[in-house]
Specification:
alpha/beta, 331 residues, binds adenosine-5'-triphosphate, 6-stranded mixed beta sheet, 11 helices, binds magnesium ion
Length: 331
């Protein structure tokens, strides 16, 4: 399998602050690769370096074998960039925006018109193409932004959080465009998100990034498999070390430790269990989920412990992230 993108020990520093810290990975031709990480993880900084917006502080990146700093002109013919922030002219129509960026790639006349209509088709925006961008919904603007990124028929497309603040219909259009571009053109895609459902649905492999570091990289299935027997979270009133030791000693439990309780906003991902910010949360890694749950219940009953909440966490990428970092993807 051919490699379309390789990064070697990429680092980006802003003064003393390291936004991207020693990141190395590869994307194969035709692969949809997800970068999953919370706000501020370094996803956009990664894309900016790989697409030649600014050079890495250390390390290097290659697209199709070409160095993104030394051979940027060549690299630009191979990549399409759909930035997190919209880059469109509001008074121009969707079509005119696309045509403008097409001209920057040297497209003219019939070829430009054909390409523009091709990319409008991919994002399902033909009908509104002649209206000014300022009359579009947020989701429609995003779709035009995506169309702009496709105008040079890239081999590798960077999509930076394309669904944030987007209505469900446009979101679906974006998903379907990604799937079609990958299936029909074999386009490789680097897709950043902090929504694990998107990474699970779209991506062949997922890199999990936190505080600038790539902390895991595998297929969604393998990442989830590392959770083993599952994770149980139990909310109690105080951090009781005897409880922690007692639970850890149960046969179906591999480890138990107190973790930072979720913030008020984090309640949503815990299935709305009513987590309050002022309590202790015991994270229990199970050898076998159901057995561990029964044993834990038995233990708290025997020891008269007041349980405030009890969750057997769904084995998904969100739980993988929690497992690796002790915190939620969205906070
Ligand atoms: N120009 C800058 N100067 C200083 N710090 C910066 C600059 N740009 C980004 N950062 C910091 O670098 C870190 C990574 O930012 P980045 O935008 O890459 O994160 P992200 O993963 O894209 O987050 P989000 O999901 O919010 O888009 C953040 O802590 C951010 O505050
Ligand atoms: Mg970003």
């Amino acid at each position: 399998m051919n490699t379309i993108l390789e990064t070697h020990h990429l680092v980006k520093k802003y003064g003393d602050f390291t936004a991207v810290n020693d990141v190395s990975f590869e994307i194969a031709e035709g692969e949809v690769f997800g970068l999953l990480g919370p706000n501020g993880a370094g996803k956009s900084t990664m894309i900016a370096m790989i697409s030649g917006l600014f050079p890495p502080t250390e390390g290097e990146a290659r697209v199709g074998g070409h160095d993104v700093v030394k051979e940027l002109r060549k690299v630009k013919t191979l990549i399409g960039v759909v930035p997190q922030d919209l880059a469109l002219y509001p008074t121009l129509s969707g079509y005119e925006n696309i045509a403008f960026f097409g001209q920057l790639f040297g497209l003219r006349g019939k070829e430009l018109r054909e390409r523009a209509s091709e990319v409008l088709g991919y994002v399902g925006m033909q009908e509104r193409a002649k209206d000014p961008v300022k009359t579009y919904s947020g989701g429609m603007k995003r779709r035009i932004n995506l169309a702009v990124g496709l105008i040079n028929r890239p081999r590798l497309l960077f999509l930076d959080e394309p669904t944030v603040g987007v209505d469900p219909q446009s979101r679906n259009h974006i998903f379907e465009s990604v799937e079609r571009l990958n299936r029909e053109q074999g386009m490789a895609i680097l897709y950043t998100t902090h929504y694990m459902e998107e990474a699970e649905r779209l991506c062949h492999r997922v890199g999990i990034i936190d505080r600038g570091r790539l902390i895991a990289l595998d297929t969604p299935r393998n990442l989830v498999a590392q959770l083993g027997g599952g994770i149980i979270q139990m909310g109690v009133a105080v951090e009781d070390e005897a409880l922690c030791a007692g639970v850890q000693a149960l046969p179906a439990v591999s480890t138990a430790s107190f973790v930072a309780p979720p913030s008020a906003e984090g309640v949503e991902m815990n299935g709305g269990t009513g987590a309050s910010p002022n309590r202790a949360l015991l994270k229990i890694e199970a050898v076998h989920g159901n057995d561990a749950l029964l044993q834990v219940l038995h233990y708290v009953n025997e020891h008269d412990i007041d349980v405030l909440s009890l969750d057997l966490l769904e084995p998904n990428l969100e739980t993988v992230f929690l497992h690796l970092t002790g915190k939620n993807l969205r906070d």
